[in-house]
């Protein structure tokens, strides 16, 4: 009996009876660009046209064009506008993927719990080196 079940399982796996993956439809993609980054919005429009993504799936934000941003700036300038866009759009088809283009920060700093104790990371790195050298 175990041999039959093992063979049956092997046949199912080999024949690809699993649920097939579905490709994203252009209408399921949200493209996010930054008005402050040079050419970000223009690049986004080009991307929309080449991928057949509807123009209403372009969200332009005004945020820093640096590689990193604070948690507070991320929440206020990126997360909240994206959340509002998704809540206010027609329900179907649902957005299943975001494409963030040039100019949208790639890294978000952790939240600062006490503004008086907020210290730039670079100064902490220097302090750590001094502590190690004096140990």
Question: Would you kindly provide a written description of the structure presented here, covering whatever features stand out?
Answer:
This protein is an alpha/beta fold and 135 residues long. The chain has a domain at 24-114. It contains four helices and five strands. The strands form two sheets. It has a three-stranded parallel sheet, sandwiched between helices. It has a two-stranded parallel sheet with strand order 3-5. The model has no long low-confidence stretch (mean pLDDT 81).
Protein structure class? alpha/beta
Number of helices: 4
The order of strands across the largest sheet is 2-1-4
The secondary-structure element order is HEHEEHEEH
The rounded distance between the terminal residues' Cα atoms is 67 Å
The total of beta strands comes to 5
Helical amount among residues, as a percent range?
40-55%
Beta-strand residue fraction: 5-15%
Question: What does the overall shape look like?
Answer: elongated
Overall pLDDT level: 81
Residue windows where pLDDT falls under 50 for at least 5 positions: none
Q: Describe the biggest sheet?
A: 3 strands, parallel
Q: Please give the radius of gyration in angstroms.
A: 23 Å
